[in-house]
């Protein structure tokens, strides 16, 4: 985490914070070629401007091969939905995008995850820096048992972000998460006093307070009622203007409503061993996946015949 290359000055957001780079450039090129080759061959429509490209991504938990050979790209300022039956590896793939799997002692990741052209698993990469730029919101709202203000200020403080005015930053993050009007008069109150939906928006404010350019969401609405869910979906549509979003959801209507592209995963048997493993079946524009999927397994799943 010392040198800063020219490439780092581009879209990774590094120039904005003058942070050192988080990965070695170059390995992206192979994945990028694959990506363009797929487009040129007239296959599925892939994002023209990817923030992430995964190349032969494999994840193991101990000896268990959880996901196999995932090649995916995630478009800038797009919402990409990861869908599929339970256990197909959606959350595992999501966690690879900001190295959250590092926190699981048995997890091992193979293949490449390029982020703006840098391998986030490169030797000199600081995972903390990765997670600052690639924020995450979890299934269950998980505010810290602190004040609303301190929840939002937490990330900038612990990562040592240079901030002119913390008050302004907190207001801007809460505004970005569509929560400011509801909490501006009780910023010192404990966050646990908020409703579930408000808590989840607070978690989104906490995630965007460190000025990431990607927000990963792991079933962010599964613990919320329909009205709170609708608010989060509306918020996602707004956030898309400023961030790249990847969402894992069990709710196919939600994927169809909010996302630009959808990746459908399923559990398959490996031909060599018969072991079960998660695999990407189809990735395309969301309208294509839901209106005329290319793969029978996708069609069976979205029509409710399987999973
Ligand atoms: N920490 C872990 N240790 C061991 N195995 C794990 C771990 N996390 C996930 N797995 C296994 O890896 C596979 C993929 O799990 P993952 O949670 O990524 O799937 P998912 O599609 O997100 O599932 P769900 O929709 O049920 O949340 C499953 O077989 C799961 O049991």
TrEMBL record:
* Gene Ontology terms for molecular function: ATP binding; ATP hydrolysis activity; phosphate transmembrane transporter activity
Q: Which SMART domains match?
A: AAA
Q: Where is the composition biased (Basic and acidic residues)?
A: 33-46
This protein's record includes keyword Transport: yes
Q: Region annotation Disordered: residue ranges?
A: 1-48
Which stretches make up the ABC transporter domain? 51-292
Q: Which UniProt keywords apply?
A: ATP-binding, Nucleotide-binding, Translocase, Transport
One Pfam annotation, family name? ABC_tran
Q: Which Gene3D superfamilies match?
A: P-loop containing nucleotide triphosphate hydrolases
- Asked if the keyword Transmembrane belongs to this entry, the reply reads no
Q: Name one GO biological process term.
A: phosphate ion transmembrane transport
Gene Ontology annotations for the cellular component aspect, listed alphabetically: membrane
Q: Which PANTHER family match?
A: ABC TRANSPORTER I FAMILY MEMBER 17
Q: What is this protein called?
A: Phosphate ABC transporter ATP-binding protein (PhoT family)
Organism equals: Myceligenerans xiligouense
Lineage, top ranks: Bacteria, Bacillati, Actinomycetota, Actinomycetes, Micrococcales
């Amino acid at each position: 985490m010392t040198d800063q290359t020219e490439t780092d000055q581009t879209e990774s957001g590094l120039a904005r914070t003058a942070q050192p780079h988080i990965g070695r450039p170059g390995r992206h090129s192979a994945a990028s070629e694959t990506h363009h080759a797929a487009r040129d061959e007239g296959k599925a429509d892939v994002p023209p401007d990817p923030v992430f490209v995964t190349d032969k991504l494999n994840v193991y938990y101990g000896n268990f091969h959880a996901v196999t050979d995932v090649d995916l790209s995630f478009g800038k300022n797009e919402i990409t939905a990861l869908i599929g039956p339970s256990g197909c590896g959606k959350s595992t793939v999501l966690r690879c995008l900001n190295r959250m799997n590092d926190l699981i002692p048995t997890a091992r990741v193979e293949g490449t995850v390029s982020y703006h052209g840098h391998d986030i698993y490169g030797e000199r990469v600081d995972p903390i820096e990765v997670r600052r730029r690639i924020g995450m919101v979890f299934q269950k709202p998980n505010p810290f048992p602190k004040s609303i203000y301190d929840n939002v200020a937490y990330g900038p403080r612990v990562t040592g972000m240079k901030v002119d005015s913390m008050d302004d930053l907190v207001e801007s993050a809460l505004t970005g998460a569509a929560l400011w009007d509801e909490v501006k008069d009780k910023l010192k109150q404990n966050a646990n006093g908020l409703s579930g939906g408000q808590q989840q928006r607070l978690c989104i404010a906490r995630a965007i307070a460190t000025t990431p350019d990607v927000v990963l969401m792991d079933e962010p609405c599964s613990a919320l009622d329909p009205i709170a869910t609708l608010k989060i979906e509306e918020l996602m549509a707004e956030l898309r203007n400023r961030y790249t979003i990847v969402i894992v959801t069990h709710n196919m209507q939600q994927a169809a409503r909010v996302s630009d592209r959808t990746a459908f995963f399923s559990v398959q048997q490996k031909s060599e061993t018969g072991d079960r493993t998660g695999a990407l079946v189809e990735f395309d524009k969301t309208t294509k996946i839901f209106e005329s999927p290319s793969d029978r397994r996708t069609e069976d799943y979205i029509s409710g015949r399987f999973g």
